[in-house]
Amino acid sequence: xxxxxxxxxxDTAAAVxxxxxRFCLPNDPRMQDWPWEVADPKRLDEFLAAYDDGGIxxxxxxxxxxxxxxxxxxxxPAIATDPRWGRTLEAIDRSIALxxxxxxxxxxVDSEAPEEQWLVTPFLRKILDRHRDRLERx
Length: 138
Hints:
This protein is mainly α. It has one domain. Helices cover about 60% and strands about 0% of the residues. It contains 7 helices and no strands. It has helices at about 15-25, 35, 45-55, 60-75, 85-95, 95-105, 120-135.
């Protein structure tokens, strides 16, 4: 999914190290997509509490939200009725500048074929649509 370069944001080693320590998550240098590899729907309450409580840097919030999105993706169809998902979408919407890369990526804007999308895609596309004018470069 081609995210426009001006929206690029990636995990930092410091954020990964901090979150790995905080949540006792594996952190091996060979883990290529760390936030997605450590995602766990059973730990969503814990992840969301840490995100909401503050006290973490923007880099940590960005990376933690990637873990949260993947955790919801792993939750499966129950995502549509999970009230935590609605609260998560509101948090993403409020912090669109921080999460623009994630919203664009998970929106799978280059694909209309359902098999090339995720469960979270239709929800994040709504956020992208609300902010698209602001996020697109002219």
